[in-house]
Amino acid sequence: MHIPAIGLGTFRLQDRQVIDSVRTGLELGYRHIDTAQIYGNEAEVGQTIADSEVARRDLFVTTKIWTENLTAGKLIPSLKDSLRKLRMEQVDLTLIHWPSPKDAVPLTETMAALLEAKTQGLTRLIGVSNFTIAHMTQAIAAIGAANIATNQIEIHPFLQNHKVAAFARQHGIHLTAYMPLAYGKVMQDPVLRQIAERHGITAAQLSLAWLLQQGFAVIPSSTQRANLASNLAAQNIHLPETDMAAIHSLDRNERIASPDFAPVWD
Ligand SMILES: NC(=O)c1ccc[n+]([C@@H]2O[C@H](COP(=O)([O-])OP(=O)(O)OC[C@H]3O[C@@H](n4cnc5c(N)ncnc54)[C@H](OP(=O)(O)O)[C@@H]3O)[C@@H](O)[C@H]2O)c1
Prior knowledge:
The chain is of the alpha/beta class and 266 residues long. 40% of the residues lie in helices and 13% in strands.
């Protein structure tokens, strides 16, 4: 199974909120759930999946290794801990959540441990997140581009990440767009609203359709049933090239996720 084009994000969602969001998402037809060790909700995600009617084999589950677990000694034990919380023997995709802060842990060590996790069957696919061109270059040198299923990075109309996208395309590496709604900001943009209105869709759907049409996977999150449903329906929207171009012109390098340990961005 490839990475399903639309997934359900779970960042910030805790306890009842994450349970309700994932349960509703599964009911509506989401089959790709994105969690992470640092989100502190793997156990709730696992419980909700276990309680649902959806068979494990029909689901695509991603988790991400936190920066404290990037050494050879910690990566696999931390993934086993995630699997225990998720109540699974294997996840579909395991990502390195962020490059090691200040590159303290050599990337060759981390990528080798991640590949070993795949060899051991703990994860079906492996990949990276928030990797710059420099980090992607090192990761490719370490384990080969064919072993890197995706680079999950922030992409939305206001941060289009063209350089990283071009590099990934050149190496045949798929990209997943996180914060595909710019954490709600796309809904306020007058240009997006106007184009969306013309098509009888929402600005959120427009942003998702624009990303999907470029071949990115998207992982929007929502706590609202109606939003979860309309975000999923974005996969049925096709945009004319003129609208694609109009949205391309909205790029303003506006990055939302940039913690103090972030790498030097391209
Ligand atoms: N790898 C990384 O470092 C990283 C970093 C950040 C995020 N992520 C992943 O990406 C996922 C998505 O990012 P995100 O959750 O930060 O931001 P997002 O998906 O861009 O935006 C979520 C926000 O948009 C609202 N929303 C969702 N659908 C809507 C709709 N149809 N109409 C109006 N408002 C809507 C939600 O509010 P309501 O709940 O009210 O709908 C929520 O406030 C995360 O959950 C996480 O899984 C990964």
